[in-house]
Amino acid sequence: LRLLLETSMPAKKKKALLGVADAKIGAAILEELGYQCQTGGVVAEILRGIRLHFHALVKGLTAQSASKAQLGLGHSYSRAKVKFNVNRVDNMIIQSISLLDQLDKDINTFSMRVREWYGYHFPELIKIVSENYTYCRLAKFIGNRKELSEESLEGLEEIVMDSAKAQAILEASRSSMGMDISPLDLINIESFSSRVISLSEYRKGLQEYLRSKMSQVAPSLSALIGEVVGARLISHAGSLTNLAKYPASTVQILGAEKALFRALKTRGNTPKYGLIFHSTFIGRAAAKNKGRISRYLANKCTIASRIDCFSEVPTSVFGDKLREQVEERLAFYETGEPPRKNLEVMKEAVVEASEVVAEVKRKQEKKEKKKKKREKRRLEALTAAAEENSVPETEENDIEPKKKKKKKQQQELEAESEQEMEAAPEPEENGLEEEALPKRKRKLMVEADQEEEKKKKKKKKKARDSEEE
């Protein structure tokens, strides 16, 4: 605990908390072991000195290993703070909503640049088309307005989704007051327009991603107040857990801190709403009821965020029921019709949520069973393939020793025949021995006699030649 406080706390908090920690440790030692411990005064300095020179006091411990231990402690503490369920991580929501807001600003700035740039050539188009994304698509499609003809009317209708507007654009291009433009300038305008279009399309994809993440992480909050406003609340609070810890009064003015502190400083009226102003409920309420409905909505947002944060299987049932309650409260402010009691609504929500959770768990079990079956089949297929591969190898191994055996037998036979030839006696005149010998041996003996006769003849020839010389 002391190491943790030493590494992660600022200097002012550190002293106070270390004193509290020492007192608690001293009390625990007294309770367990019966030893009286002093925690104040010089003890803190002594402990600080021991901690500073700990690597020198302990054998086998170096300063490097001590710093590694402190780093490991810090990492384990940080890891404990992070949720282990990957699908319910709210960090992705914070990053995506921040990027979405940044993209909105950038797309707006770039679209205004395209309007100003292309407006020199075709100024009438700005009055006909007000939407930025459509304007950029038209600027890319039209290019030089003088080349626009009746054939391109279908393409204009596809972009604008209105035949009257497409006809108005065609007529305006024929009688436009804009200046002529060079092909190089048009290429630059078209390339910049295509960049703005791709950014707008990416923004749509990012919004879908944010919607899916909010349905996984905070389904009740997104069902109550909407994905974008809910994500902004989570981002402003820092995490879903922090938002769940806030009271309803804080959630109500979350995002209006400047106005709140200015009102406190000048002793004026405090703000009635912050980020929740962007929800549809406050816009639909009358001017006199805006403060009341914002307070009620903040209360329901707090309940929804706590349900999302601490429930094991997140569902949107509670969010839908809370939304119905806010709708009833709006109707009560306008017509005076009394809304249902909160207890009745929550009882209904608990019953429905239990059914939904049971269904979700059933589906998860089915998925796990299917996954196990697939894994089992895959393992069986792998084992079968391995067996098939091993069969031919064993056959080849069986064939090889057979071949070796045959070779050995042939070599043994040849050796035996040579031994018999060497040990066999010379044939007698009557030829009885010759008949007893096998044909193969007889043949070999005849060939040997013939070779000896040839050698003798060669020797005689050599002797005659030498005598003649």
TrEMBL record:
Residues 217-335 form the Nop domain. It comes from the Eukaryota. Residues 413-435 have a biased composition (Acidic residues). GO terms for molecular function: snoRNA binding. It is found in: Nucleus, Nucleolus. Signal peptide: none annotated. GO terms for biological process: ribosome biogenesis. GO terms for cellular component: box C/D methylation guide snoRNP complex; small-subunit processome. InterPro entries: Nop56/Nop58 (IPR045056), Nop_C (IPR042239), Nop_dom (IPR002687), Nop_dom_sf (IPR036070), NOSIC (IPR012976). Pfam families: Nop. The keyword Transmembrane does not apply. Residues 361-469 are annotated as: Disordered. Keywords: Nucleus, Ribosome biogenesis. Involved in the early to middle stages of 60S ribosomal subunit biogenesis. Required for the biogenesis of box C/D snoRNAs such U3, U8 and U14 snoRNAs. Part of the small subunit (SSU) processome, first precursor of the small eukaryotic ribosomal subunit. During the assembly of the SSU processome in the nucleolus, many ribosome biogenesis factors, an RNA chaperone and ribosomal proteins associate with the nascent pre-rRNA and work in concert to generate RNA folding, modifications, rearrangements and cleavage as well as targeted degradation of pre-ribosomal RNA by the RNA exosome. Belongs to the NOP5/NOP56 family. Part of a large pre-ribosomal ribonucleoprotein (RNP) complex, that consists of at least 62 ribosomal proteins, 45 nonribosomal proteins and both pre-rRNA and mature rRNA species. Within this complex directly interacts with TCOF1 in an RNA-independent manner. Core component of box C/D small nucleolar ribonucleoprotein (snoRNP) particles; the core proteins SNU13, NOP56, NOP58 and FBL or FBLL1 assemble stepwise onto the snoRNA. Interacts with NOP1 and NOP58. Interacts with NUFIP1, RUVBL1 and RUVBL2; RUVBL1:RUVBL2 seem to bridge the association of NOP56 with NUFIP1. This is Nucleolar protein 56. It comes from Dromas ardeola.
